[in-house]
Write a structure and sequence with these properties.
Elements: E1 4-8, H1 13-24, E2 28-33, H2 36-48, E3 53-57, H3 65-77, E4 82-85, E5 91-92, H4 100-128, E6 131-136, H5 149-168, E7 175-182, E8 184-185, E9 194-195, E10 199-201, E11 207-208, H6 210-222, E12 227-230, H7 234-243, H8 245-260, E13 261-265, H9 291-318
Parallel strand pairs: 1-2, 1-4, 2-3, 4-6, 5-9, 6-7, 7-12, 8-11
Antiparallel strand pairs: 10-13
Helix pairs in contact: 1-2, 1-6, 4-5, 7-8
């Protein structure tokens, strides 16, 4: 039986990849994000694989927006089985150099927006006595990194909130609160971030694909788990942060400047913290090669080359002009040439 899945933050990155993954499973989707234009693109992508989809432009920081999203979902599909929250923004810069309004909007979107989604979803799940809430955290909810104070504050708060929500829903065995914890992921969030660091940000190595995170999300919806970590170095970072705090704090600043910031200069910008940029919204951020696309490209090139080679061979050996003198009288033209 197909599920009814709400995806907030569906216009790009992990949310968009997860929407495609759920659509491929035949689930019915309600997609939410700030940009109506981008949502229409994602709706089209999901419908191409046969999914039933509605899109609802939604700003998770606007009062009443999440209640309206839930009401639309129930009106369209009768229930909510899974609520996936991925909406997030980011700002680079030293804490005191990031404008107060930018810092507060990052926290409002990444933490309070997630809390609002959880509040609305859990009310529906408690009434139905079943449902799965999946929140998107980060390894930066377990460790810290400089120049990302608003994002780190939000993700630490989200990890604490998810733990509390699990404790409070223990009386409902059919209700699950899950947390996906990615490390670096190849999404556009880094280029689209507010920036007061003077240099564009980037995901430090190793980098996971958003499709890999999306598969973990769908697996969690299938078999709910408390927390799923996606990232080969996540555990190592957490161990170093906890057991060697002095060494961690000494190294994390230089490593962040080396691996988490590019050499490309950038003037102070609000990025997409306050408003979306639809032209920049995509699943991938371009930090990793698109291997499936590369394979398709190579396959298409090889097929074209093969077709060209076959045409060349036919022209050279298979389509010689027929010499009437070599055709036997009364013959059809297919007989072997007569020797002279």
């Amino acid at each position: 039986m197909s599920r009814v899945v709400v995806v907030t933050g569906a216009s790009s990155g992990i949310g968009r990849a997860a929407a495609r993954e759920f659509a491929g499973r035949g689930d019915r989707l309600v997609l939410a994000a700030r940009s109506a234009e981008s949502l229409a693109e994602v709706r089209h992508e999901c419908r191409q694989v046969g999914a039933e989809v509605r899109d609802v432009p939604t700003d998770v920081t606007e009062p009443g927006a999440l209640d309206a999203l839930a009401a639309t979902t129930v009106a369209e599909f009768g229930r909510i089985d899974v609520w996936l929250h991925t909406a997030a923004v980011m700002a680079y810069g030293r804490f005191e150099e990031v404008p107060v309004e930018v810092f507060e909007q990052v926290v409002r979107t990444d933490l309070l927006g997630a809390a609002g989604a959880a509040r609305v979803a859990l009310r529906h799940f408690r009434s139905a006595r079943r449902g799965t809430l999946i929140l998107t955290g980060s390894v930066l909810g377990h460790v810290t990194a400089p120049y990302l104070s608003g994002y780190v504050t939000s993700k630490w708060g989200l990890h604490g909130l998810s733990r509390v929500l699990r404790q409070e829903s223990r009386d409902l065995p059919g209700v699950h609160v899950c947390l996906i914890t990615p490390g670096s992921v190849d999404t556009p969030v880094y280029q689209r971030a507010a920036n007061y660091a003077g240099r564009f940000g980037r995901p430090p190595l190793p980098i996971a694909t958003p499709e890999r995170v999306a598969r973990a999300i769908v697996a969690c919806a299938d078999r709910p788990r408390r927390e799923i970590s996606v990232g080969r170095f996540n555990l190592l970072m957490r161990v170093g942060f906890t057991t060697l705090p002095g060494l961690y704090d000494r190294l994390v600043g230089p490593l962040m400047r080396l691996c988490g910031l590019t050499d490309r200069p950038v003037a102070p910008t609000e990025g997409v913290v306050f408003r979306p940029h639809p032209a920049d919204e995509a699943v991938r951020g371009g930090w990793l090669p698109d291997l499936p696309g590369l394979v398709r490209s190579i396959g298409g090139t090889a097929a074209s080359a093969g077709a060209a080679a076959r045409r060349g061979l036919r022209q050279r050996f298979g389509s010689r002009p027929t010499d009437a003198a070599t055709v036997a009288p009364g013959g059809s033209g297919h007989e072997r040439p007569q020797l002279r």
